[in-house]
């Protein structure tokens, strides 16, 4: 079976995609700068230190320099001077992501006992988002506890690695906002991301941070963002067959859950697009 995305993935789900035409980003939208996104996010996460954002963002290099190796980044430079190549897949620019561990410690005063950090920060950010956008519709009805939602293992592992390796409270990460996988179902997108090696399935916490810091990236008739880095069990019965989906329609933002096997021309799976050098430091 030959996949439509040139990832090398030819497995069972490779071509599970709607015929289209598929939706894309709002007309004329361009990603905000890292500095501007951080300025918008900072008041929403009191206590989280955003002071290193510009320093971390400056590590990324858009054009491939002559000394760049096939693995990505300046291999011949000292670690402190290496710069990371920004992939052409990163059409969402640089995502500003407060570390979930920092949010849990600094922003959440009364954490729900027994909840993992991911579920705690999701409850927090959804509350913040509803305050900013009162018309926000949560089709999950607040069912965000660990019996309803958990991180995909590969996403959980890499996010934990990035948190350990990055000083401070914030991660600055190249982001693919869904167009590359528009129309593909989530199980297909996950297979392609694994084959591409540098793509990490995005989480719904990332979706909310993106929407807070760059709300113009969503609009009526524009692409919904599937979150393949999350597994959902809508009935809390242990069957995690779904994934989160976030978008804008009918004049308001919407958050929901859908089966990983369902295709929709109006949605696409988002991902981090990490330079290979990030895994060798």
What's this entry about, in short?
This protein has helices spanning 34-41, 53-57, 100-106, 117-132, 153-165, 186-196, 204-213; strands spanning 60-61, 84-85, 94-98, 137-138, 149-151, 170-176, 199-201, 224-232, 242-249, 252-259, 267-269, 271-273.
The CA-CA distance between the termini, in Å, is 36 Å
Query: Number of DSSP strands?
Result: 12
What is the total number of structural domains? 1
State mean pLDDT (0 to 100 scale): 90
Give the helices and strands as they follow along the chain. HHEEEHHEEHEHEHEEEEE
Helix proportion range: 10-25%
Low-confidence stretches: 64-77
The structural class is alpha/beta
Q: What's the tally of helices? A: 7
State which percent range the strand residues make up. Answer: 15-25%
Overall geometric form: globular
**Rg over C-alpha atoms, rounded to the nearest angstrom:** 18 Å
The largest pleated sheet is described as: 6 strands, mixed
């Amino acid at each position: 079976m030959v996949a439509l995305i040139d990832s090398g993935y030819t497995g069972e789900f490779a071509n599970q995609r709607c015929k289209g035409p598929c939706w894309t980003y709002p007309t004329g939208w361009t990603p905000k700068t890292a500095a501007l996104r951080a300025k918008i996010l900072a008041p929403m996460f009191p206590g989280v230190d955003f002071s290193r954002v510009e320093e971390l963002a400056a590590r990324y290099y858009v054009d491939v320099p002559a000394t760049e190796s096939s693995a990505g980044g300046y291999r011949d430079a000292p670690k402190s001077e290496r710069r990371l190549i920004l992939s052409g897949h990163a059409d969402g620019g640089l995502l500003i992501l407060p570390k979930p561990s920092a949010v849990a410690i600094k922003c959440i005063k009364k954490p729900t006992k027994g909840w993992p950090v991911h579920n705690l920060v999701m409850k927090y950010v959804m509350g913040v988002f509803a305050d900013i956008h009162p018309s926000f519709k949560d089709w999950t009805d607040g069912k965000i506890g660990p019996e309803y939602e958990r991180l995909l293992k590969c996403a959980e592992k890499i996010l934990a690695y990035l948190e350990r390796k990055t000083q401070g409270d914030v991660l600055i990460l190249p982001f693919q906002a869904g167009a590359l996988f528009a129309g593909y179902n989530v199980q297909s997108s996950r297979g392609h991301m694994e084959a591409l090696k540098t793509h990490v399935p995005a989480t719904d916490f990332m979706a909310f941070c993106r929407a807070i810091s760059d709300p113009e990236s969503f609009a009526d008739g524009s692409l919904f963002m599937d979150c393949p880095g999350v597994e959902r069990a809508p009935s809390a019965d242990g069957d995690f067959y779904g994934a989160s989906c976030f978008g804008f329609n009918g004049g308001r933002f919407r958050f929901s859950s859908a089966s990983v096997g369902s295709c929709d021309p109006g949605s696409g799976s988002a991902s981090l697009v990490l330079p290979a050098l990030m895994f060798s430091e």
